[in-house]
Every structure is written in structure tokens, then in C-alpha cells.
Design brief:
By secondary structure, the chain is mainly alpha-helical. 63% of the residues lie in helices and 0% in strands. The longest helix has 25 residues.
């Protein structure tokens, strides 16, 4: 197999991971991601008057949506079960909504994408991918999660979209509804190592305090994890919530 073809080949799930969490590779890509997001947040407003702004936005939005299609193609190539086509966590929805936000400028999708950005940060800090820098999926993973956060920042800076504290309610109701439905599917399939949507079957990463709670009871873990994730979403928005004027002129 040529090096070019090998670049696009995924590592089987049962293989030893090439990527190691908290390795030098991990720290380098985190630094790169942070720099990119700072640039988007600080300087993307300059594209307001750029005649190619729409083209750039459409291209990035389409690329984000394509990554979901690429994952479906991969699942199809392995003849995987139907549930492998479902997003594992909010990031799967957020990358699709983020892409649509850039293309349509829909404010509801923007708000959901923004709050689901905290999940993207968690994924970047604790990646569960197998591939290393010599594989396409490594870059797709980084692009997807950076795109979720960056697309919300872009709409805030280029189109002056705002986040209000009340917007958290939209995030909570939609996320809780999805969590409820996905938990039912998780339990029906009952294969935690294959299907663990929204991580209600077991913690995404081993060796965290959540594992200790899970060892006591899966339901204790779920009862803590779901409200805790909702709280993280609220706290994530704190630096961005619009401030109400105390005195109107």
C-alpha cells in the first residue's frame, strides 16, 4: 500500500492506539488549536468587509458537514450495525449544526453549537481517537472539534451574535432530550464498548473520578454525570453572556 493510501486508512478499533493522551503530540496540537481559536476570536471581525467572506464561510461549513458524511462512509465500508451511524456525543451534532450555522446563519443552531463547544473542549483535552499524525483521521478529529468552537466564535465576531443566560435553557432542554432518547437506545443495544452515546453507559475515559462513582453504581454515575455536564455548559457561557444595562439612558 502506498504512503498516500495508507494516510487515509483508519486503525481498527481493537488495535493499539497510535495517539497517546498527554503526549508531546497532544500538547502540540492543543497549542495549535488554542492559537487558531484566539486568532478567530480576536481577528475574524476583519472579514466583515471581505468580499470573499461568504465563500470562506460556506467552504468551512461544508467541510464540517462532510466530516460527518466521511464517518458514515467509514461505518458503511465496515458493514457496521445501524447504531454506529449515530453520534456518540454532542460533538457529532455540534459539528453538523456548526457547519449549518456558518452556511445558514441560523441563530438557534448557533446557540446550540456555542454551548456544545464545552464538549468539544473536553474532547480536545481528553481525545479518544486511535490515530496519530500520520493518519487523516487525526486531522479530521482536530478540525471537527476546533470547528465547533471556532464556528460559534466566528458568528459572534463577524455577525455580532450574542449569548444570553436564558439561551442556556435551550441548550439544557435539547441536550437533556437527546440524552434521554440516546440512553434508551444504549440500553436497548446493551453493548457499552460499542455504543455509549452521551456516555451514559460508562465514562468516556478510564481513570477519572467518574470511574469511582461508576464502580459503585452505573445509575449513581448517570445521576451525577448528566447534571454535571449541564452545569459545565452553563459555566462555559459565563465569559460570554451579555450584560444587562442597570440604567437605561
Amino acid at each position: 500500500m502506498s504512503a498516500f493510501k495508507s494516510f487515509f486508512v483508519r486503525i481498527p478499533d481493537e488495535s493499539t492506539p497510535q495517539f497517546q493522551m498527554f503526549s508531546m503530540t497532544h500538547f502540540i496540537f492543543l497549542i495549535v488549536v488554542i492559537v487558531i481559536l484566539i486568532i478567530i476570536y480576536r481577528y475574524s471581525y476583519k472579514l466583515k468587509t471581505c468580499k470573499y467572506e461568504k465563500h470562506i464561510r460556506y467552504f468551512v461549513g461544508s467541510a464540517m458537514i462532510y466530516t460527518n458524511i466521511n464517518l458514515w462512509i467509514y461505518a458503511y465500508s465496515l458493514n457496521q450495525e445501524w447504531y454506529h451511524y449515530l453520534p456518540v456525543a454532542t460533538c457529532g451534532y455540534a459539528v453538523f449544526f456548526g457547519g449549518l450555522t456558518l452556511i445558514t446563519k441560523n441563530k438557534v443552531l448557533f446557540k446550540l453549537t456555542f454551548f456544545w463547544g464545552f464538549g468539544a473542549w473536553l474532547s480536545l483535552l481528553g481525545p479518544t481517537m486511535l490515530e496519530g499524525p500520520d493518519k487523516y483521521n487525526f486531522y479530521q478529529f482536530v478540525f471537527r472539534h476546533t470547528g465547533i468552537i471556532g464556528s460559534a466564535f466566528y458568528m459572534m465576531k463577524v455577525f455580532d451574535y450574542k449569548i444570553d443566560k436564558n439561551d442556556w435553557k435551550l441548550f439544557f432542554y435539547v441536550t437533556f432530550g437527546l440524552t434521554f432518547v440516546m440512553t434508551i437506545i444504549n440500553l436497548a443495544v446493551n453493548k457499552p464498548d460499542e455504543l455509549n452515546m452521551f456516555y451514559t453507559m460508562q465514562p468516556a475515559i478510564h481513570g477519572t473520578p467518574l470511574n469511582y462513582l461508576y464502580d459503585v453504581s452505573r445509575w449513581y454515575y448517570v445521576a451525577f454525570w448528566v447534571p454535571f455536564a449541564a452545569l459545565l455548559g452553563y459555566l462555559y457561557g459565563l465569559p460570554f453572556y451579555t450584560k444587562k444595562e442597570l440604567f437605561k439612558k
